[in-house]
Design a protein that fits this description.
This protein is an alpha+beta fold and 101 residues long. The protein has three helices and two strands; from the N terminus they run αββαα. A two-stranded antiparallel ribbon has the order 1-2.
C-alpha cells in the first residue's frame, strides 16, 4: 500500500511505483472519478480535434478506396458467417506470406 497525504489546495503526490505502473508522467492528463467509495484516476490521451478530424477524413477515404477495389469482407447475415470468413482470410494471408518468403 502506498500512503500519501492530501496537501493544501487538495494536491496529492502519486507514489513512484503507482506512476510507473500506470505509465503516467508530468503533463499527462488523468480522468478523476469517485466510484464505489474510491477515488479513481485513469490516464487519458488527449488529441487535437483538428488533427483527429484530418486523420479521420484520410481513413474514410482509404476505406472507400479499399471497398471500391474490392478489398473487403462481407456483408454477413450473422456473426458465425463473419468469423468463418475472417478465419479463411487469415489462412489465405498466411499462405501468401509463406509463398512470398
Amino acid at each position: 500500500m502506498a500512503l500519501t497525504k492530501i496537501k493544501q489546495k487538495f494536491q496529492v503526490t502519486i507514489p513512484t511505483a503507482v506512476r510507473t505502473a500506470a505509465g503516467v508522467a508530468v503533463g499527462d492528463f488523468v480522468d478523476a472519478r469517485y466510484q464505489h467509495g474510491a477515488i479513481v484516476l485513469r490516464p487519458q490521451v488527449v488529441r487535437d480535434r483538428e488533427e483527429f478530424l484530418k486523420q479521420l477524413k484520410k481513413d474514410i477515404e482509404a476505406s472507400k478506396a479499399a471497398v471500391k477495389a474490392g478489398r473487403y469482407l462481407g456483408p454477413f447475415d450473422n456473426a458465425d458467417d463473419a468469423a468463418r470468413a475472417f478465419q479463411q482470410f487469415k489462412k489465405q494471408r498466411r499462405a501468401h506470406a509463406r509463398r512470398s518468403t
